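Entry for the shared binder. Reason: the reviewer on the internal report wants the predicted structure included alongside the sequence.
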Amino acid sequence: MTFIHPLQIGSVTTKNNLILAPMAGITDSPFRVLCLRGGAGLVCAEMVSAHALHYGNAKSGKMLQVNPKEHPVSMQIFGSDEQTIAEAAKNAEAAGADMVDLNAGCPVKKINKAGAGCVLMKDEAKLARLLEAAVKSVKIPVTLKTRIALNHKEFLGARLAKLAEDCGAAAVTLHARAAADVHSGEPNVDALAKACAEVKIPVIGNGGVLNAARVKEFINAGCAGVMIGRGAVGNPFIFQDICDELAGKTPSSQDSKKRLEIYLNLIEENVAFYGERIGVNRSRKTSGYWIKDFPNAADVRGQFVRMDALSDIRKLFADVLSGL
């Protein structure tokens, strides 16, 4: 079996079937560009509020920006009414997104209280209306990202995949854990397999993907593609690593020195995109994934998270790199 191959999602063809998952606060434009360099076939943006876009929120509007270097890119939106979802999908298309993804799987309470995210799994009629509104509003492919279940009492993956197909979605991504599990526990591969058998559109498996073995497991279950989230944080080259391993090659994982060089580049790109204060602040959130596995790494992290100026960060990294 060929595990890595191009993936057709509506009118979009990706170079391979390994996809960067949307992650709030992480998968912004600079990180997406880096993951494409690292071998991803498709990158997904962090979710954007349709409600905020409707009311002209500048921060949300900036989140729709697409760098010419980051195609193909999917823009994920979330919301609870058809009008704003349709409007958000149109805005994403106008901003240059190659496809639009509707979030119906996020377990965060703030999102759920607004009637969005995984609570939509409880109201399939409403979810269908939102998905249809997005599909009818744009010419680019629309996809759905949801979960196999809310809890372990009833598995909904196959039914939600069929709903997505019936509503005109070009693909469905299923996180193979229940919403109640958030990001913990083993993914339920059997539930994924049942969903794959139910529909003709591509099913993309997600959840706990850290290596080639999990990719093989999901593809063997019938998934057309595999979405990688947390495994890419701190190693945006995980996509190429997996491709290499599946091809029988030695994975091209980055050593500590190379990882720090990439991280500094990402910090610089964040500063260029957001400005110094916000760019540095966003970079701090993932420092534990990057600044590790070398002598005095904890001390270096401690110094880094107290810095606000890019010039100071460059000096710190130069000193560390010279000693590695």
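Summary line for the report: The CA atoms of residues 82 and 130 lie 5 Å apart.
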